[in-house]
């Protein structure tokens, strides 16, 4: 597979390490003790399955439960978008801005996972998400490249970090689904207010649905990893972006560090100077916000991906600050 084709593959996962917080270089990433915080951009839609799904949706009967599920999602999205277009000072616009602020506080890992639709991705031999009688072509299309920057970690580590993420998130999202589902009926008294919609109820339903989708995605990704469908792929282009947009503490030697001379046994840093710096047990960010446009352009991502990456960077920065306090 050519580089240009693989970078724009319909099935790919882009691994973006954001922080390194005191991880020892010899620690085992599978043990869960690593401190690398990573944002993953998932793109797992098979074109022919997506086209088939669109055709099925167009011919879907009103008696099909999926019809009403899709209708509810579309209706909710349109209503929420309408709130954002409300006049300045209106309660709808205030609710919209407050809701967007709440979304920014939701873990970026959950928001990334909930965007994965197992029904549009490769079919695997798993009792919950596989369908019998799949065509051989789909089996051949099941390879998913996991792009990662090789100067930050190895291919085995990149896969171990993803495995650790889905294993740790799955039970929490399953629990979150039931908590918010049970909380929804307690918001019934708010229906007595005739003017304002029952926002607490809709919020509980939305949080429950979000957790459910993230849970299903985590289970799906864990099955893909178990069956060997996800293959790490080093990306020199991504590596270049990390070196070009690294924080100054990574890309430049400290002013307090003594200069090396020609007689010194340690030569000056070369183009691989990132590697020893990244191995230090010091909490640090690995990427700046200036790198986001370059990542979006290099991997031909939708512009909506920018907001997701910015959110992840901001949350990672806040978590790093709390861990250091």
TrEMBL record:
The chain crosses the membrane at residues 177-206. Residues 249-275 have a biased composition (Low complexity). Keywords: Membrane, Transmembrane, Transmembrane helix. Residues 249-276 are annotated as: Disordered. InterPro entries: Mit_KHE1. It comes from the Eukaryota. This is Mitochondrial K+-H+ exchange-related-domain-containing protein. It comes from Marasmiellus scandens. The lineage of its organism: Eukaryota, Fungi, Dikarya, Basidiomycota, Agaricomycotina.
């Amino acid at each position: 597979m050519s580089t240009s084709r693989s970078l724009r593959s319909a099935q790919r996962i882009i691994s973006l390490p954001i922080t390194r917080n005191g991880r020892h270089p010899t620690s085992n990433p599978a043990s869960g003790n690593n401190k690398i915080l990573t944002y993953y951009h998932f793109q797992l839609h098979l074109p022919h399955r997506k086209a088939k799904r669109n055709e099925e949706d167009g011919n879907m009967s009103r008696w099909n439960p999926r019809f009403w599920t899709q209708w509810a999602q579309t209706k909710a999205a349109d209503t929420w978008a309408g709130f954002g277009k409300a006049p300045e000072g209106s309660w709808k616009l205030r609710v919209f801005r407050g809701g967007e602020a709440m979304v920014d506080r939701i873990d970026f890992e959950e928001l990334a996972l909930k965007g994965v639709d197992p029904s549009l991705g490769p079919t695997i031999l798993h009792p919950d998400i596989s369908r019998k009688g799949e065509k051989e072509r789909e089996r051949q299309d099941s390879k998913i490249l996991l792009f990662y920057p090789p100067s930050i970690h190895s291919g085995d580590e990149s896969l171990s970090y993803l495995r650790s993420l889905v294993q740790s998130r799955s039970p929490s999202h399953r629990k979150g689904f039931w908590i918010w589902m049970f909380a929804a009926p307690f918001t019934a008294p708010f229906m007595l207010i005739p003017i304002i919609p029952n926002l607490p109820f809709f919020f509980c339903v939305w949080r429950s649905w979000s957790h459910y989708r993230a849970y299903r995605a985590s289970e799906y990704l864990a099955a893909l990893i178990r069956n060997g469908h996800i293959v790490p792929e080093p990306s020199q282009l991504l590596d270049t972006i990390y070196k070009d947009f690294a924080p100054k503490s990574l890309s430049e030697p400290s002013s307090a560090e003594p200069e090396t001379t020609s007689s010194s046994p340690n030569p000056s840093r070369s183009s691989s100077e990132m590697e020893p710096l990244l191995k230090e047990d010091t909490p640090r960010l690995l990427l700046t916000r200036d790198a986001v446009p370059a990542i979006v352009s290099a991997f031909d991502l939708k512009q909506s991906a920018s907001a997701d990456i910015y959110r992840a960077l901001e949350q990672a920065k806040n978590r790093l600050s709390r861990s250091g306090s």
